[in-house]
Amino acid sequence: MNLHLKWGLRFLTVAVLALCLAPLILARETVFHLGSEVGPIEQGSVWIWLAAAVWTLGRALGARRWLPLAFALVMLLMGVREAGLPPELVPSGKALLSWRYYVDVSIDPARRLITGVIVLTLLASLLVSVTSTVRYLWRDRGWRRPDGQFLAIAFALLVCAQLAEGWAGHRDTPDTDLRVLSALMLEEGLEALGALFTLATSTLRTWWIFRPSRHRVVEGKAR
Predict the structure, then answer these.
(1) DSSP 8-state class, residue 143
(2) pLDDT at 218
(3) What is the CA 148 to chain-centroid distance, rounded?
(4) pLDDT tens digit sequence for 48-100
C-alpha cells in the first residue's frame, strides 16, 4: 500500500466515523442543519468541486492537453449540481435531457440553442472522462497508482451518497427519526468526501491525464 492511499484511507475512516457519530452526539437541529441542502457541508462541497475544476483547468492550460478539460467540465458540472441553481435560471437535469424542452416554443430559441450546445458538451465530457478512467484503471492497471485509487474512492463515495439520499428521502424538518438524520449526514458528508478525493487527485503530479498516452501504455505493460 502506497503512502497516499494509506493516509487517504486513514482520513476517510475518521471522517466516516465522525459522520456516523454526529447524530448520536449533536442536537437534532444541528445535525439537520449540517445535512441540509443549505448547510455548511453542502456549500463546502460546491467550493471543493469548483476548486478542483479551476486547479485542473489551470494545469490543462499549462500542459496544453485536451483530456483534462473534459474532467474540469465534469467537476464544474458537479459543483453546479451541488449549488442547486434556481430552476428559472437552470432547469432540472431531466428537463434538459428531454426533447420537449428544445421544441417548447415558449422558450427563447437562442436560449434553447445555447443550452443544447452546453448540454452536449457536458455529456461528451462526461463520456470521455468515464471511458478514459475505466480504460486507465483496467488496461493500464491504474488501480495500483494513487491517481487511480483516489478517483475510484471518489466514485464509490458518490455512489454511496446517492444510496444514502434514497434512504433519507426528502425531509424538511429536524423532528425526524435518528435513522433519517444519519442518512442525511452520510449523504452530504460522502458527497463532500467524494469531492475532496477528486480535488486530491487533481493535485497529484502523477495524474495520468497529464501524461502522454504512450507513456501510460508502457507503464501498464511494465507491470
Answers:
(1) G
(2) 45
(3) 15
(4) 999 999 999 998 887 777 889 999 999 998 988 888 766 665 665 566 667 77
Q: Is 117 exposed, middle or buried (0-12, 13-18, 19+ CB in 10 A)?
A: exposed
Predicted pLDDT of residue 128 = 92
- Are 92 and 103 in contact, with CB atoms under 8 Å apart? no
Identify the pLDDT of residue 174: 61
Q: What ranges make up the beta strands (E) of the chain?
A: none
The pLDDT value given to residue 15: 94
Q: Are 79 and 46 in contact (CB under 8 A)?
A: yes
What are 151's three cell numbers? 478517483
As to burial, measured by CB atoms within 10 angstroms (0-12 exposed, 13-18 middle, 19+ buried), residue 211 is middle
Mean pLDDT of 137-166: 89
**Residue 189 to residue 157: CA distance in whole angstroms:** 9
Q: How far apart are CA 97 and CA 78, in angstroms?
A: 16
The proportion of the chain whose per-residue pLDDT surpasses 70, expressed as a percent, equals 84
Among candidate residues 153, 159, 160, the one with its CA nearest the CA of residue 198? 153
Retrieve residue 116's grid coordinates: 443544447
Closest CA to 49 of 85, 77, 12: 77
Count CB atoms within 10 A of the CB of residue 69.
16
Classify 89 as helix, strand or coil.
coil
With the C-alpha atoms ordered 97, 76, 71, 4, is the resulting torsion angle positive or negative? Answer: negative
Contact 91, 98 (CB under 8 A): no
Q: Is the pLDDT of residue 216 over 60?
A: no
